[in-house]
């Protein structure tokens, strides 16, 4: 069993759903939970947006009892704002609060938030301590190896963040400069885990896209669990597939077309319910290609799905796709 703080108990080698902007919303999280995700996080939330009471940021705080344990993830560049944000989040009663020090996109990092703070580790420590002190929730962190190849300081970061009170650390095996290019390097993640001073759970992230790779990285790098991001998009089945493979050494058959269509429909119907018809229809369009990835002659179906506006027509189209041989 893996413990985060005093109250969160996870199974041995838990599988975590990564917080992904425009992906890890309640409809998608529901499917991942049903398919084996042990812990999940909200999309990352701007601390400035939350304090301004921006609709998009506040909406991301929606969590449901069946999702537990679940964390709310925040990002920001101002210590006082992050501290205030932590107090706001405590009111919605998530299981933990996660700080994003890993997002590499320009509009976040260039403002000194997300992975941008990797240029100033002293500020990262001060900000983290302010958040830890502002809330009774367990505080965790997700970050990267460093800003670039010349500043891979994750070993120092892990010790310093543990010392000021974080309860778990997730490490993406790339630098900010790498963005998502090249291969994730887990060797430094393993060194953090091997450090006798580090007592908190260490979760690895980056490039886990199959049961075989999950087992290989589990054995090779010794992490306490793994966080899965891009490989779960349109494929929530990956969590149960990995669990089954770790337990039995056998691969589960891939989802059938009927199962893919049913998952897409369930995702769509929850999106409509949660976001409203107009936004639910529009934002679901980015997901169809992922649910039906590898399906022959899907181009015409995709064009139909992304141009339809009526929920009934979309549901009918998904049912039709699911009935094909």
Parts with pLDDT < 50 across at least 5 consecutive residues: none
What number is the mean pLDDT? 92
Identify the CATH class of the largest domain: Alpha Beta
User: What helical percentage do the residues reach?
Assistant: 40-55%
User: Structural class of the secondary structure composition?
Assistant: alpha/beta
Fraction of residues in β-strands: 5-15%
Give the oligomer, counting copies of the same chain as homo and different chains as hetero: single chain
**Which architecture of the largest domain per CATH?**
Alpha-Beta Barrel
Please tell me the total number of domains: 2
State the shape.
Answer: globular
Write the layout of secondary structure elements.
Layout: E1 2-4, E2 8-10, E3 15-17, H1 26-34, E4 40-41, E5 45-46, H2 47-51, H3 55-59, E6 70-75, H4 79-90, E7 96-101, H5 106-109, H6 121-134, E8 139-144, H7 154-163, E9 169-172, H8 187-194, E10 202-205, H9 211-221, E11 225-228, H10 238-248, H11 257-275, H12 277-284, H13 288-291, H14 299-307, H15 311-322
Parallel strand pairs: 3-11, 4-6, 5-6, 6-7, 7-8, 8-9, 9-10, 10-11
Antiparallel strand pairs: 1-2
Helix pairs in contact: 1-11, 4-6, 9-10, 11-12, 11-15
What does this structure look like?
- There is one protein chain.
- The chain is an alpha/beta fold.
- It folds into two domains: 2-248, Aldolase class I (TIM Barrel, Alpha-Beta Barrel), CATH 3.20.20; 257-322, Non-ribosomal Peptide Synthetase Peptidyl Carrier Protein, Chain A.
- The chain has helices at residues 26-34, 47-51, 55-59, 79-90, 106-109, 121-134, 154-163, 187-194, 211-221, 238-248, 257-275, 277-284, 288-291, 299-307, 311-322; strands at 2-4, 8-10, 15-17, 40-41, 45-46, 70-75, 96-101, 139-144, 169-172, 202-205, 225-228.
- Strands 3, 4, 5, 6, 7, 8, 9, 10 and 11 form a nine-stranded parallel beta sheet that branches.
- The radius of gyration is 20 Å and the shape is globular.
């Amino acid at each position: 069993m893996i413990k985060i703080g005093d109250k969160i108990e996870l199974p041995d080698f838990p599988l975590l759903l990564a917080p992904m902007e425009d992906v890890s919303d309640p409809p998608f999280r529901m499917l991942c939970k049903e398919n084996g995700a042990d812990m999940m996080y909200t999309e990352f939330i701007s601390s400035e947006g939350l304090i301004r009471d921006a609709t998009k940021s506040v909406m991301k705080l929606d969590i449901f009892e069946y999702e537990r344990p679940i964390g709310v993830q925040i990002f920001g560049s101002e210590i006082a704002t992050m501290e205030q944000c932590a107090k706001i989040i405590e009111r919605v009663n998530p299981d933990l609060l996660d700080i994003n020090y890993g997002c590499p996109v320009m509009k976040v990092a260039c403002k000194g938030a997300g992975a941008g703070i990797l240029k100033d580790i002293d500020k990262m420590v001060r900000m983290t301590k302010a958040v830890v002190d502002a809330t009774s929730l367990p505080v965790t962190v997700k970050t990267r190896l460093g800003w670039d190849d010349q500043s891979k300081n994750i070993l120092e970061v892990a010790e310093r963040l543990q010392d000021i009170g974080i309860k778990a650390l997730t490490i993406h095996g790339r630098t900010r400069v790498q963005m998502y290019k090249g291969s994730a390097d887990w060797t430094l993640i393993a060194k953090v885990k091997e450090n006798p001073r580090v007592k908190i759970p260490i979760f690895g992230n980056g490039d886990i896209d199959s049961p075989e790779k999950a087992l290989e990285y589990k054995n090779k790098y010794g992490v306490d669990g793994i966080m899965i991001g891009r490989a779960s998009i349109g494929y929530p089945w990956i969590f149960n597939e990995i669990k089954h493979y770790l337990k039995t050494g056998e691969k589960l058959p891939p989802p059938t077309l009927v199962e893919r269509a049913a998952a897409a429909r369930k995702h769509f119907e929850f999106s409509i319910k949660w976001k409203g018809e107009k936004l639910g229809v529009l934002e679901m369009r980015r997901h169809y290609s992922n649910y039906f990835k590898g399906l022959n002659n899907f181009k015409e179906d995709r064009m139909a799905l992304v141009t339809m506006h009526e929920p009934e027509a979309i549901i009918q189209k998904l049912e039709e796709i699911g009935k094909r041989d």
